[in-house]
Amino acid sequence: MHLQVKALVKTYGTFPALKGVSFEIDHGTVVGLIGPNGAGKTTLLKCILKLLRYEQGEILYDGQPLMSRKEIAREISYIPDQPVYYEELTLEENLNLYAMLSGLSRQEFLEKKQMLIEDLALAEHLGQLPDRLSKGNKQKMMIAMAFLKNFRLVLADEPFSGLDPVMIRSLKDLFGRVKKEKKTVLISTHLLDLAQTICDSYIFLDHGRILATGTQEDVLRIAGSSVEDKFCLEEAYMRLLQRK
Ligand code: ATP
Q1: Domain-by-domain residue ranges, the chain?
Q2: What is the phi/psi pair of residue 17, to 5°?
Q3: pLDDT given for residue 231 in this prediction
Q4: What CATH fold (topology level) applies to the domain 3-83+152-242?
Q5: N or C: which end of the chain has fewer CB within 10 A?
Q6: 74-97 pLDDT, tens digit each
Q7: Degrees (nearest 5) of the Cα angle 198, 203, 209?
Q8: Which atom of ligand 1 is nearest to the CA of 158?
Q9: Probe target for ligand 1 pocket from 43, 48, 209, with the most ligand atoms within 8 Å of CB
């Protein structure tokens, strides 16, 4: 999915959380959404999902402004920053329910579910109630729910949070796989070394404004580094914040 965000303004009461945010994301790319605490990353993702209303601006999904909540739910997957689930259902029942709502065929669901259970090492936790899961295993449940769907765009808010190194690698592989399928990935993360290994381009956000967008070369140029310099996302981030 090709995503275009144009001059987006979002306020909470009188507090401006997004102050005219614009960028574009090509389909089949992995994009890192980078910025300090409170920059507006979660707010932006929720606006794209239409979970939040915004006052001004436009969001185009493959060039179309009018995508219903239903279409969004079908085509865009979301890994939220806080786990969301039915607490009275087991992990497996949560997955089953989510797949049912996503409209997967039974065969497709069983294949995907099996693959995700293996990739995310969830087998021994399937019968557990989510409240009893560790933070990392709750996060893996959210990832499994997001990847069960036949999405065209996945929005991931701090998806690596709480994962052990083996699971971080599994999630990186999952993102790599969806990219090969020409799906689009937008990841909000503070883990810059990790982002640098998986992202094709970046969106830097601070205090509700875009500081820079683009590929490594674009970011180096905007950050005032020589394009001959070896790209280091952390270095670019520090430079961009200092230059404001
Ligand atoms: P973090 O990296 O810490 O997760 P973020 O970049 O995702 O931060 P947001 O959660 O989008 O930032 O918040 C952006 C700003 O909007 C912050 O100043 C936050 O305090 C404010 N904010 C977020 N939600 C609300 C709300 N419901 N009511 C009022 N202000 C809010």
Answers
A1: 3-83+152-242
A2: -90, -35
A3: 84
A4: Rossmann fold (3.40.50)
A5: C
A6: 889 999 999 999 999 999 999 999
A7: 160
A8: 4
A9: 43
